[in-house]
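Chapter review: from sequence to fold.
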Amino acid sequence: MAQGLVQVTHTSSSRWRRRTGDYATISAALSAAGDGDVLTVAPGTYRENLVIERAVTLRGPERSDGGSVRLAPADGVALTVRATAVVRDLQIEGQDAAAPALLIEDCVAELSGLRVVTRSASGIEVRSGARPTLRRCTVDNPAGVGIGVGGGAGGLFEECEVVAAGQSGIAVHEGAHPRLERCRVHHASGAGLSLSGEGSAVDAVGCEVYEIKGAGVRVASRAVGNLTECRVHRTSADGVTLDTDAVLTLADCEIHDIPENAVDLRSRSVLTLTRSTVRRFGRNGLSVWDPGTRVDANGCEIQESTGDYPAVWVSDGASALLDSCRVHDVPDALFVLDRGSRADVLDSDLAQVRNTAVSVSDGGTVQLDDCRIREAATGAWFRDHGSGGTLANCTVDAVGTGVIVTKGADPEIDRCTVTDPAEAGFYVSAEGRGTFSNCRVAGSRGYGFHVIDGCRTTLRRCRTERCARGGYEFADGGPLAEDCTSDQSSAPVASEPGPPLPPVPPAVQTAGLLGGIPQQSAAAAPPASPAPSSPHGGASSGEASGGPGKDGPGKEARPAKEVLGELDALVGLESVKREVRALIDMIEVGRRRREAGLKAASARRHLVFTGSPGTGKTTVARLYGEILHSLGVLERGHLVEVSRVDLVGEHIGSTAIRTQEAFDRARGGVLFIDEAYALSPEDSGRDFGREAIDTLVKLMEDHRDEVVVIVAGYTAEMKRFLEVNPGVASRFSRTITFGDYTPEELLRIVGQQAEEHEYQLAEGTADALLGYFAELPKGPTFGNGRTARQTFEAMVERHAGRVAQLDDPDTDDLTLLHPEDLPQVPRH
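The token string follows.
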């Protein structure tokens, strides 16, 4: 290296020392420098391992236009700081997978404007009690930790940024306690911010964590975090996780766009959440597990769930307190599960809840005071024995049913008002109990209080007003009513002219863990919502076209001939069409024989569909449901499509709940279970899939006239599925095999796609497509019709790239797909 690259400005007053000096290397300059000296490094690359052990200033050039200073040794630590030094405006590059690029230990240094670009164990490591100040430093380390702070160290990090990390963005451990101000961490492959170990803590203000392949913030093993005005978003896992006695305070923070749980707490962890917002999460907004685990939320908002899980989930003996909070636009607002689990909700709003606002199950307890519930399918549901608590001075408005009590649950409801419910204000069945004092129901389209099955419920000083079917409906020998009044006992409310309301049908005892939950017929109000899934399984699949809201009981069914015409229009599937028509003919003739007073064979309608992906199994299932609806066999004919993740839970009991839920959503239609063989893996061990199968078998028997079940999957795997349970095969009337499409049929599908999108196949293109489809590998992943559609999309894309180069394309140019638009045949 040439002379004169490093200039040292000496500050010593000793006469014998030079005022300035030029050195060929930074190491030589450091050896010559004393406390207070300034080392100015000229632009260039320095292959040195530097150690600063004096209180000097090491800086890059004052003007940046001349280039940067790159400190880039072949291995080891590029820069070690062990003194009260100042380091500015350097680029540090390390290549040692076992060492940090920048090491700060046992000192109070000041570092600013550093750029660490490395593939090291860590970009910056602070340890051994160091307390540095780092300002405007960036770390790019796709191989390891961005910034690691351990060994009792601390310091202040201002406006620092981790732009990439192969592990955690910022890792704090071994009793370290740094402070982060206005820092950013993104594109990390571990947690964005990780705290672990007793004595480890972080104070973070105005920081942002995003684009993380993992959890945004992870606090574990007695570590403590305090985050203020921070944002966590766009992670691939949970937004914030706490585990094993972790303690975290979030104040004025935002957690959003999280595909899993926004916040997950376990193993005696404690979260304090103040004036914070949780939104757009795929599983739970707050997931609280295990005895001793608790969350205290004050003035917070939880909203806009993108999944099918409760916004707040409390189970396994955990507890939650929500004070002055708002939970809205979610599937379920609060679910409390298991003995010892408890939730206290004060002065809070639960609104726009698609299913149940408050669910209590398996011995859980809730206390709601001065809360407002509105626009929910069910206001509160106490589900089973041991489940209870208190609702005091709460209002429930514009719901399906205000409060449901079933299966031995025994809550206390005091001074609560239910207005404008679609079904009943309070509904008690299946040995539910409950004490209702000073409660009021107004404007119910059903009953005010509906108590069936002889339930021993107590009502004191309750009142009903303007209830369409009557103020009170009790079974003989059931509730005890004291000083209860009604403005009318049974006269319906005169509103818009229309047919009289039908009588309320008797409740149906359903199987599984939710036995005893009332199911109303479709002619009455919408059915009470089923229990939501456990939050740690797979997300429930949405209902296919024709589901609730799109094909409700009020929609007129299409004629069977019209639906059969759509089936006939499908490409190929000739044997499938014959099987479906034969089955429909049996059902139709049986219906006509019964109408004629003749005996009719009992036709089993459950089916097995076997075949490769993309062969139209889901489409045929949807049409089959529509046909049965048009024949009056099914009440709605909608399709609910599920798979293993929607039916199988991760802890004992949750599988039956999920399976029951899916079955209930399919009532009056078709339950389509894709890849059903996954419920019976070859190495099942303690797998809960068998529980799902057993539950399905019983439900299919108990409700054989309400739901058609179709199981689908690869042929060989489905054979194993049918053999796993002696009762499974007997529940299905026949197996329909969907064969792979021939090249000619795939060509027809592409032709249909082209016609639909106003394209045409040019001369020679059809032949090219036939050759293309003949050459395509037909392995187990071959997509059949899906492959044909993807081929068309690829052709359109290549066509666009070709035509975009033309200055003045004519209509033929814009519409004709040529052989050169075909993609290459993939090779495996």
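Two observations follow directly from the output. The longest helix spans residues 574-595. The chain has a mean pLDDT of 84.
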